[in-house]
Amino acid sequence: MEGRASSRRGVLLFLLVGVASANPDGLLPNGNFEQGPDKYQMNGTWVIGRKSIPCWEISGFVEYIVSGQQQDNGMVVAVPEGARAVRLGNDASIRQRLTGMTRGTSYSVTFSASRTCAQAEQLNVSVAPESGVLPIQTVYTSSGWDSYSYAFRARHSAAWLVIHNPGVEEDPACGPVIDSVAIKALHPPSRTAKDNMLKNGDFEEGPYVFPDTPWGVLVPPMDEDDVSPLPGWTVMSDTKAVKYLDAAHFAVPRGSRAVELVAGTEAALVQEVRTTPGRSYTLSFSAGDAADGCAGALRVDAYAARGRLPVSYESRGTGGFVRNELEFAAVANLTRVVFQSMGHYMKPDGTLCGPVVDDVSLVAVHKHAARRLFM
């Protein structure tokens, strides 16, 4: 009997591991670090041993953090989800092998991170052979925790996800705290309506959003050849991001997702589309507020070819939006559609916020309609 029970446990363990290794949308295996090292694998908060944290491999000075514990410098560390997280010290990293991916498919990784005592923190995120640098020195929430997204295109069915702290501080423990690592397959961006020339104009396709974190997901700046966590769109900036919102926690003009321009003039949301020089087009979009307390005259500028439309939305911070249209003539075979917040706005708690953009469409004006415009 004992042998058969042991055999059944072995089969069950095999099935569980097989399911976990497929990496479905959502948390990675032990992605919230609630399963921790045994006591003999730790020296205080310092994790000893490369495979001491289940489902992860570590390198360098990695600490296992329990929510509410007080550090040597008197700082109390909070954890956004569950009770445990990890902190990456100087040149430390964590990694997990992603499996069951489809070659050629794009994926987005979402994770939560919090700064500690370093001033100019950043994280290197890679899924070989692709890598990116995520600046995390700007904090967009009052809790100190933000969720970040990083996207890549799978070259193989399996690859290592690595999150690395490249910083070198006097205090080796001055590094970011990491929690809640998830993955999501990104579908090819499609046009949201038959005549809409823009892809993913409603922003419904994007990075994984944690259902229990009420602060959205930051989409970082990227080079033009990078894979975007927000298919169809690129964020142009040096160090700033835009925020991806869900309707469960924010006011969204249409559907279940939208984008908040939280960095003022320091970041722009861009999509490039093929056009015919001399032909007229209409760019339509919604601009409003996320019902997150961001009050005041929120201004967003929309650009396309030589056209520019400044929109000022008087927000009470409780939700709402206005619909806007920009008519322009294309001057080249490729036209950039650009949205940019023209002010730096703050909520009452001092955190950055800005206008919300959603439901964007670009349509060609038919010739007979264009004639009416100029009659």
From TrEMBL:
One of its GO terms (molecular function) is enzyme regulator activity. Residues 1-22 form the signal peptide. One of its GO terms (cellular component) is plant-type cell wall. Keywords: Cell wall, Glycoprotein, Secreted, Signal. InterPro entries: DGR2-like_dom, Galactose-bd-like_sf, Pectin_Meth_Modulator. It is found in: Secreted, Cell wall. Its main location: secreted. Residues 26-184, 197-362 form the DUF642 domain. PANTHER family: OS02G0527500 PROTEIN-RELATED (PTHR31265), OS04G0494950 PROTEIN (PTHR31265:SF8). This is DUF642 domain-containing protein. The gene is LOC100273371.
